[in-house]
């Protein structure tokens, strides 16, 4: 059960209504995921919406690489809603089902694409050790260039914040949806 108070138009503040309009009129189109919690702090919701729009829709990594990074981050935090929502977006970005299922199980997928593998190494090293090796840094920089590397790191950091928010406020999966994690 969600710990997030239900927001209804008649009980929202003017600032909350303004942010809801920004969210629903932009590429997100709906208030879901961490936004119901963040709307309890309208300025936070407004600022994170801008960052989210850049990272999801305009950042340098391909959608495929971004979604792999998001799935790895969501799994790390065991954020069910995050993984559930982004598994579908990953499929649309061309991420193969065996990769999604391996990530859901917390296992290393078999990668046919070396860029996917570099993202996996970058994200898992950072999340598990709080650092990346010189070799992984060089491999990522050589594969993607500086802007894409910086944006990938920002995606990971932003989705850590999303995942933590979802977990603290127990954002529910849609009714009838099972956990995306086998454990």
Structure, explained:
- It is a single chain.
- The protein is mostly helical and 183 residues long.
- It has two domains: 44 residues, no CATH class; 105 residues.
- The protein is globular and about 55 Å long.
- The relative contact order is 0.17.
Shape: globular
Give the termini distance in whole angstroms.
20 Å
Largest beta-sheet characterization: none
H/E element sequence? HHHHHHHHH
Number of helices: 9
Structural class: mainly alpha
Radius of gyration: 17 Å
What portion of the residues fall into strands of 2 or more residues? under 5%
Total strand segments: 0
Mean pLDDT: 93
List low-confidence stretches.
none
How many domain regions? Answer: 2
State the helicity in percent bands.
55-70%
Please describe the topology of this protein.
Layout: H1 14-25, H2 35-38, H3 42-57, H4 63-76, H5 80-92, H6 97-104, H7 114-129, H8 134-144, H9 146-168
Helix pairs in contact: 1-3, 3-9, 4-5, 4-7, 4-9, 7-8
Task: Name a few traits of the molecule.
about 180 residues; mainly alpha; 2 domains; globular
Summarize the structure in short.
The chain has 183 residues and is mainly α. It has nine helices and no strands.
